[in-house]
Design brief:
Elements (H helix, E strand, L loop, with lengths): L5 E8 L2 E8 L2 E5 L1 E3 L12 H6 L5 E3 L1 H6 L3 H6 L3 H5 L5 E3 L3 H7 L1 E5 L4 E4 L6 E4 L1 H11 L3 E3 L11 H22 L6 E6 L5 H14 L3 E4 L8 H8 L12 E3 L5 H9 L4 E3 L2 H7 L2 E4 L2 E4 L19 H5 L2 H9 L3 H28 L2 H14 L6
Helix pairs in contact: 6-7, 7-8, 11-14, 13-14, 14-15
Bound molecules: zinc ion.
The site of zinc ion has 8 residues, from helix 12 and helix 14.
EC number: 2.4.2.29
Family: Belongs to the queuine tRNA-ribosyltransferase family.
Keywords: Glycosyltransferase, Metal-binding, Queuosine biosynthesis, Transferase, tRNA processing, Zinc
Length: about 375
């Protein structure tokens, strides 16, 4: 196995790309969807089950892990891979986004963000240097530069100031990351929905130089149309030969639209979180398993799906265990949702490789428009 981090493109269809990221911990087929393992677990899933859905990589959250159980503790226990029993690649976010959305009493300065933990009120400081240190202690394979991101909509001057701060932090992240063969540091493009700011950000990041690039600051309340508007040009501003990661996205139709526009990696809590609230994602759109129409339905959630929830259980059973508050409800629906997302990614990769992206996209939308199977 390779001892270096590398990315190779295998096929292009329009702007859509299929490729392979190689790391010492394994390969990541792109376009890739990364399940979110916030607190060193993808909720309701054993790690081997996450791998069985087809995931090549998962995401861990720096903010959560630094507060509980603590990065130094995870390091003492052998690193995040060993701690959570996941030996494939892990990407960690920088903590920048979550500290601004979750922490109490935040104070943002040029140095970084001082805050109090939402868990126990303890005082902390996150800076580019500390974020790099935490992600190194965790043993992350793909490390994200420390950045700041305003919620949209926001004044253009606010977005510009924030983006320039993030670019200064990107340089500090690069300097603090050091020389770590086999590990990658990704820079994060900011600039909201303003093309000139996105260009300025891309130029700044490319001058620093990263192993991959994220399009940040989207999926923060701007809506799909505005997001696709940015993705129509932003990926093309980044180096062709490096992976491009769209953070925090999304719904299945967001993913298809993002891949169409040249995105290689995505992550979202949606499939796992939905699985715990009785929502299933299928080829035919969203199914609410709580609905009384499923109570007597012996058919699987999706007869074409090969996940354990669809192979071995009926809609009636899934309805019953959800209504009864049984733990297996979260386990089965999360498994199905993650399996569906990975099936979707495999379909996208195959379609791009075959030069049939447009046909795949048309079929994807046609099946969703047809809706769920008729009630019995
Ligand atoms: Zn299924």
């Amino acid at each position: 196995m390779t001892q270096r981090f590398s990315f190779s493109l295998h096929a292009k269809d329009g702007a859509a790309r299929a490729g392979l990221i190689s790391t010492p911990r394994g390969e990541i087929r792109t376009p890739a969807f990364m399940p979110v393992g916030t607190a060193a677990t993808v909720k309701a899933m054993m790690p081997e089950s996450v791998a069985a859905t087809g995931a090549d990589i998962l995401l861990g959250n720096t903010y959560h892990l630094m507060l509980r159980p603590g990065a130094e503790r995870i390091d003492r226990l052998g690193g995040l891979h060993k701690f959570m029993n996941w030996d494939k690649p892990i990407l960690t976010d920088s903590g920048g986004f979550q500290v601004m959305s979750l922490a109490d009493l935040r104070k943002l300065t040029e140095e970084g963000v001082a805050f109090r933990s939402h868990v126990d009120g303890s005082k902390h400081m996150l800076t580019p240097e500390r974020s790099m240190e935490i992600q190194r202690l965790l043993g992350s394979d793909i490390v994200m530069a420390f950045d700041e991101c305003p919620a949209l909509p926001a004044e253009e001057s606010v977005v510009a100031e924030s983006m320039r701060l993030s670019m200064r932090w990107a340089q500090r992240s690069r300097d603090a990351f050091g020389d770590r063969p086999g590990h990658a540091l990704f820079g994060i493009m900011q600039g909201g929905v303003t093309r000139a700011l996105r260009e300025e950000s891309a130029v700044a990041l490319k001058a620093i130089g990263f192993e991959g690039y994220a399009v940040g600051g989207l999926a923060v309340g701007e809506g799909q149309e505005a997001m696709f508007g940015v993705l129509d040009y932003a990926p093309g501003m980044l180096p062709e030969d490096r992976p491009r990661y769209l953070m925090g996205v999304g719904k299945p139709d967001d993913i298809v639209g993002a891949v169409k526009r040249g995105i290689d990696m995505m992550d979202c809590v949606l499939p796992s979180r939905s699985g715990r609230t009785g929502q299933a994602w299928t080829r035919r759109g969203q199914v609410n398993i709580k609905n009384a129409r499923h109570a007597d339905d012996p058919r699987p959630l999706d007869e074409q799906c090969t996940c354990p929830a669809c192979r071995n259980y009926s809609r009636a059973y899934l309805h019953h265990v959800f209504r009864s508050g049984e733990i297996i409800s979260s386990m089965l629906l999360t498994w199905h949702n993650l399996h569906y997302y990975q099936d979707l990614m495999q379909g996208l990769r195959d379609a791009i490789s075959a030069g049939e992206f447009n046909a795949f996209e048309a079929d994807f939308h046609a099946q969703r428009a047809a809706g769920d199977i008729e009630p019995l």
